Structure formats: C-alpha cells, structure tokens
Amino acid sequence: MKNISFLKLDLLRELGSIGAGHAATSLSELANTQVDMSVPEIRLYPSQRIMDRLKDEEYFVLRSRLEGGISGMGYLVLSLGEARPLAGLLLGADPASVDMDGDMAQSALKEAANILLSSYMSALGDLTGFTVLADVPAMDGPINKNDVEKHISDAPADDIVYVKSNLTIKRLGFDAALLFVPDQKSLRAIFAKLGLPE
User: Fold this and answer.
1) What would the DSSP string read from start to end of 133-187?
2) 170: containing domain
C-alpha cells in the first residue's frame, strides 16, 4: 500500500484537477472568452510555512467563509500586478484605466474569487460527498505581505491546502494562489471520509 502521505497528495492532486476544470468553464462564461487553466500545483503546508510562498509585494486578498459539511476559510491571493490586468480583462477595459478602488473592479475580482473557490469546493464535494458552501467574498487590498499573513493567521487551522493555478485569458497569463484553510476537525473528516487516517 502507498505511504499515507502519498495517498493524501494523490487526493489533493485529484481535487486540483477537478476544481480547475470547473473553474475554467465558469470563468470562460464570466469573461465571455476562452479561459485555460494549467493543472495546478497543490500542496498541504503547515500554516507557519505558507507565507514562504509569497513574494514581498502588495496583494489583494479575497476571503470567503466555508460552511456546510466542512468549516473553515478560503482565500484568493492576487498580487497587484496580477489583479489589475485580470480586472481589466473581466470588465473588457484597458487595465491601465481600471480604478482598483472602484466598485466595478472589486465586483469583478470578487466574482472571480467566488468562481474559483466555489469550483474547488464543488470538486471537494464530488470526492467526499460533503456539501461545502462559500459565502460572498470580502476583499482587502492592496496590502503588504505582513498584512496578508495577519488575515491568514486568523483562520483556525494548523494546515493549509495551497493551490497555485495559472490562468490564460486572451494570451495573458495570471498566477492565482488559492488557500483552503479547513479547521482541524474538518480536515480530519475529509481524509477519514476517503479512508485516509491522519
């Protein structure tokens, strides 16, 4: 039998593959153009190590509470350099003209975050049978890396599922970091449901 850590990694990779497929379809409808997503990099990190994955720059953080069969938080973390052109593409506008403090840009990014988070939670439901709902995302930014860490440290978890996907829209590439932060009880329930003990 495979080592249990490899089995968990296989599960996370399957979650990433299914979630990316759901997300690409829904984002294509939102952007009214084809959206391609790479097979995501997906890892389970201790919470104290997750900030090592982020560079020292400004970010937008979109956060959503997860409820239902699983409790926790979901985050979409976008650098300022990724968020502006993504908002421009979703709005059909020149990125240089996008007001990142404006309602339209923030609404577009919140909808993208909602699609991405909901897609991966739907994939989790496909694998486990749990119903997982993501509420309407709240957004903060631009904020520095230390403030991103403060947001994530508020989440009640020791382990974080890190998903990094590359989206391609109209030949432009975007890196999106999704953080799924289940509470420890929920994380144990996920692996137990799939016959994977801690």
Assistant:
1) EE-PPEEEEEE-HHHHHHHHHTSS-SEEEEEEEEEEETTEEEEEEEEEEE-HHHH
2) 4-193
- Number of other CB atoms surrounding residue 171 within 10 Å: 6
DSSP codes joined into one string, 93-137: S-GGG--TTSHHHHHHHHHHHHHHHHHHHHHHHHHH---EEE-PP
128 is a domain residue = yes
Asked if residue 198 belongs to a domain, the reply is no
**What pLDDT, on the 0 to 100 scale, is given for residue 70?**
85
Is residue 52 situated within a structural domain? yes
CATH of the domain at 119: 3.40.1550.10
For 139-167, the pLDDT digits (tens) are 998 899 888 888 887 766 677 888 888 88
Domain count within the chain: 1
Total-model pTM: 0.84
Q: How many Cα atoms sit within 13 Å of 164 on the Cβ side? A: 10
Mean pLDDT of 117-144: 88
Mean of the per-residue pLDDT values for the chain?
Answer: 83
